[in-house]
Design a protein that fits this description.
The complex is a heterodimer of chains A (about 475) and B (about 375). By secondary structure, chain A is α+β, with helices and mostly antiparallel strands. Chain A contains 17 helices and nine strands. Chain A has two domains: about 1-55 and about 260-470, MetI-like (MetI-like fold); about 80-245, Jelly Rolls, CATH 2.60.120. In chain A, about 55% of the residues lie in helices and about 15% in strands. In chain A, a hairpin with a 5-residue loop joins strand 5 and strand 6 (about 150-155). The longest helix of chain A is centred in the C-terminal third of the chain and has 37 residues, at about 375-410. Chain A is elongated, with a radius of gyration of 32 Å. Chain A starts with a helix and ends with a helix. In chain B, about 75% of the residues lie in helices and about 0% in strands. Chain B has about 375 residues and is mostly helical. Chain B has a domain at about 140-330: MetI-like fold, CATH 1.10.3720. In chain B, helix 2 runs antiparallel to helix 13 (about 335-360), helix 11 runs parallel beside helix 12 and helix 12 (about 320-330) runs antiparallel to helix 13. The two termini of chain B are about 35 Å apart. Classes of the chains: A alpha+beta (about 475), B mainly alpha (about 375). At the A-B interface, helix 8, helix 9, helix 13 and helix 16 of A face helix 2, helix 8, helix 11, helix 12 and helix 13 of B.
Chain lengths: ~475, ~375
């Protein structure tokens, strides 16, 4: 009988909850974020994400601080994406031939490409894959549509696979300085190579804000790579990347990493951290409060005194100390938070509730049939208390989500997992706020705000239904 | 006439008996707070010592002191550097024995506890105070006033705004304003430091009307009045973000609380008698609610000490919060341990002051009736 009644009551509460607009908004956000979490875990399993996230080599092909792709069309500008030219793939823009004479082989590769974008590229780098026994000589030359030739790089290869920095290499900078000096008779101390290479030849072409992009318009840019090898059995393959200004759905950070990953990976971390901490801590508070109320006397005194002492423990400071001294993962932070909030304010409110429940007939009945104190606390008091405390549990979830974010902001986040808080910390330390890197800092901020608003919307709606006294007011 | 006799003002003098009770209460609370602070300090030492940090810090500091002493003393000047090193090693061993640093941990930890409680917090590894001192105590005390300035202002301001607004809503229940405020309670689920980031994005990054952070502009204005205004300008966003985060829930809680008190019979009677609104509010609603309000204020201030750490880091406000942030980045462990001890003292002190206020406004404590807390 009572089971049916409680089931129908639960149904009534839920149906009323779904009539509240706030609760529906809250639930929709949480469902979306949950789907995002599932997507994140399926797309990038934890073992993969922790490996690639801190591996700079994995991100070498992505542009630094690139804007989201959609932003280009939003601005009405044609911003450059990455241009990748790879001799190992079929491509009409690549011309490759080999001349050999006795023991000498020369490989020549010509990349021909158009550049009709409204902004300069951000960088030029190349991967060189070569087969040789004696170190070969390589020369890379940049040929502009107006016929100017600038030497980008020259040197000997020592490894079969090497990553060569081109536009930021000292050789390229020196050659660009020379070109600029020969043309305008001026010396620039630290030239922005990729700007001068792609700018219309005129005064001011060395500064990004005064330079004008030299669009290919029919004539094209060329990069010529010549390799001198000293044996017959040799090969040369090059993957050249002209880095753009846009990448992916959310752009990249200063370490070239795709910002979509922390955005979606923050969801499972925040959800699991917030929900489980809030439930575990609330249950522990209920348990301690009920024990305090039920047993009274010395037990009550000790629990109350410990609660008072706990109030003077500087929670965040101690947590910072633990995180700093033990170089901890999110799991240890989780356990520390539980221990540090064991005797929090929740113990006092649970105790007050339990003192009332202690007088209820069903508790008296349990006592009469001989139930032990612990059984009464767990089976009757906590069970009776829980429903009224559910709204509070839900509303306290954002607090824990932001606790993780706060620790991450202070630089004490999980060392391997990308989270929202960590992204905000990294963006902030890289000066994202001063430099207007909005695509870096805005998504995690929006995610944190929406998830916390969602939980508190549900919490307050539920509170109104479960505690009808509030509704009257 | 009689009525006035029976309702003494909050701060009317104590009788002799009441004063005695107040004193016992005060001593009791002082004792309790001291025990709390001691336990927190010991906990801090335990956590730090488990990583072996306190020992390293203390011994390296001793070594420094002894080395300085030996190098500068004319007594040892004629010795070769090697001999000096030997003397340093011998002296170090002696001092370690003398200070009891070679004893088992439970004895040693008591020595450390004494140091922590007397605020002898050692020397920082990297950070230096503006006056050039390496002493953790000096570094922290130099920054403490800024933290107190910012967060006490914010908390006290928030406290009064929340009470007045809550009271207004309680008296105008169901009005449009009331419904809006109640509907927006969820905005308080975002902490102050996070509103800080959002406000920086809006006011500094997008609109460019307020500074990103810091204490004063660079270079600071020389006129003292302008200097004060400049500090105010820099303090505006941190205070605003702190107030904004607390406002909604604070007003809601106060409103509900005052509503509960307004439904008491004596308020209805006072209303029916036609007493003026001001009098009803102050005598019949606020006064009985005062003890709870003060408890909330104490919780608010304690919360603000903790929130200070992150908010100051966001705004680069030169208080102990951003000191902690710097120390984390520089791995300056003595500073971290020091700030934890100082925070424990601050929390204890806040509790004690509020206990005194509490005992003044809650007559039950003075008259010896049970209650209070």
């Amino acid at each position: 009988m009572s089971k049916i009644k409680s089931a129908s009551m639960r149904y009534a509460v839920l149906s009323e909850l779904f009539r509240s607009k706030n609760a529906i908004i809250g639930f929709s956000i949480i469902i979306l974020v949950s789907l995002l979490s599932v997507y994140a875990v399926v797309l990038y399993p934890p073992s993969i994400v922790t490996r690639i996230w801190s591996d700079p080599e994995y991100w070498r092909d992505k542009p630094v601080l690139a804007l989201p792709e959609w932003y280009s069309s939003l601005l009405g500008l044609n911003l450059p994406p990455n241009i990748v030219l790879d001799t190992r793939k079929q491509d009409s823009r690549i011309l490759k031939y080999t001349v050999s004479l006795n023991e000498y082989t020369e490989h020549e590769i010509t990349f021909t490409f158009n550049y009709d974008y409204d902004a300069f590229p951000s960088e030029i780098n190349a991967y060189v894959y070569a087969k040789f026994k004696t170190n070969p000589l390589i020369v890379m030359t940049f040929i502009r549509p107006d016929g100017r030739e600038i030497n980008l790089w020259s040197g000997t290869l020592t490894q079969n696979e090497s990553f060569i920095i081109l536009s930021n290499s000292p050789i390229a900078k020196k050659n660009v300085q020379e070109y600029f000096f020969n043309t305008f008779g001026e010396y620039i101390s630290d030239p922005t190579t990729e700007v001068i290479l792609f700018a219309v030849e005129k005064r001011g072409m060395d500064k990004p804000n005064t330079a004008e992009v030299l669009k290919s318009a029919g004539k094209s840019y060329k990069i010529k790579i010549r390799g001198a090898f000293f044996e017959k059995d040799s090969s040369l393959d090059v993957k050249l990347i002209i880095y753009g200004k846009i990448w992916g759905m959310l752009g990249t950070d200063d370490k070239r990493r795709d910002l979509l990953i922390p955005m979606i990976w923050g969801a499972p971390v925040a959800l699991s951290f917030g929900i489980s901490l809030s439930i575990i801590i609330s249950l522990l508070h209920m348990f301690l409060g009920s024990i305090s109320a039920w047993f009274g006397g010395k037990v009550d005194f000790v629990i109350q005194k410990i609660t008072e002492i706990y109030m003077t423990v500087p929670f965040l400071s101690v947590l910072v100390m633990i995180s700093m001294f033990y170089k901890v993962s999110i799991v240890i932070v989780f356990i520390s938070v539980i221990f540090l909030s064991l005797f929090g304010g929740g113990v006092k409110s649970s105790r007050a509730l339990a003192l009332q429940l202690k007088q209820q007939p069903f508790v008296e009945a349990a006592k009469v049939y001989g139930a032990s104190g612990l059984r009464i606390v767990v089976r009757y008091i906590i069970f009776a208390m829980a429903p009224t405390l559910v709204p509070g549990i839900i509303s306290s979830i954002p607090g824990f989500v932001f606790l993780e974010a706060a620790l991450a902001f202070l630089g004490l986040g999980d060392p391997v997992l990308p989270t929202w808080g960590k992204t905000i910390n990294e963006a902030n330390s890289a000066g994202a706020l001063y430099n207007f890197y909005w695509w870096w800092i805005l998504p995690p901020v929006i995610m944190l705000v929406s998830i916390s608003l969602a939980f508190s919307l549900i919490g307050y709606s539920l509170d109104k239904i479960v505690n009808p006294r509030l509704r009257e007011m | 006439m009689r009525k006035q006799d029976k309702s003494p003002s909050f701060f009317s003098g104590f009788s002799k008996n009441e004063f005695k009770r107040f004193l016992t209460y005060f001593v009791k609370r002082l004792f309790a707070v001291l025990i709390s602070v001691t336990i927190t300090c010991y906990l801090t030492i335990l956590i730090a010592e488990m990583g072996g940090f306190v020992d390293t810090v203390v011994i390296s500091q001793l070594k420094d002191e002894i080395r300085n002493m030996v190098r500068t003393s004319p007594e040892y000047a004629s010795l070769s550097p090697q001999q000096q090193e030997e003397i340093i090693a011998i002296k170090l061993n002696l001092t370690i024995k003398e200070r009891g640093l070679d004893t088992p941990f439970y004895v040693r930890s008591l020595v450390y506890l004494k140091n922590a409680l007397t605020l002898d917090l050692g020397r920082a590894n990297i950070l230096v105070s503006d006056s050039g001192s390496r002493r953790v105590q000096a570094i922290i005390f130099e920054r403490l006033p800024y933290t107190i300035l910012l967060f006490t202002t914010a908390t006290v301001l928030g406290f009064f705004i929340n009470i007045l607004f809550g009271l207004y809503l309680a008296r105008h229940r169901g009005s449009l304003m009331d419904r809006i405020m109640v509907g927006l309670t969820f905005l308080s689920s975002i902490p102050g430091w996070f509103y800080g980031i959002i406000f920086i994005m809006i006011f500094a990054m997008y609109l460019g009307v307020l500074p990103y952070g810091g204490l004063v502009s660079i270079p600071p204005p020389s006129d003292p009045l302008l200097y004060a205004l400049d500090i105010l300008k820099h303090a505006l966003l941190p205070i605003l973000s702190w107030l904004f985060s607390g406002l909604w829930l604070g007003v809601y809680a106060n409103r509900n609380f005052f509503l509960i008190f307004s439904t008491h019979g004596y308020v209805t009677v006072a209303d029916a008698k036609g007493l003026p609104e001001r009098r009803i509010l102050s005598k019949y609603i606020i006064k009985p609610a005062l003890p709870t309000i003060v408890t909330n204020l104490s919780l608010g201030i304690i919360g603000s000490w903790m929130g200070a750490m992150v908010t100051e880091s966001v705004f680069n406000w030169p208080g102990i919060g951003s000191l902690t942030y710097k120390a984390i980045n520089l791995k300056d462990t003595p500073i971290i341990v020091g700030t934890t001890v100082i925070y424990a003292y601050l929390l204890g002190l806040t509790m004690l002051i509020l206990d005194i206020v509490y005992s003044i406004i809650d007559p039950r404590i003075r008259t010896g009736l049970s209650g209070g807390y």
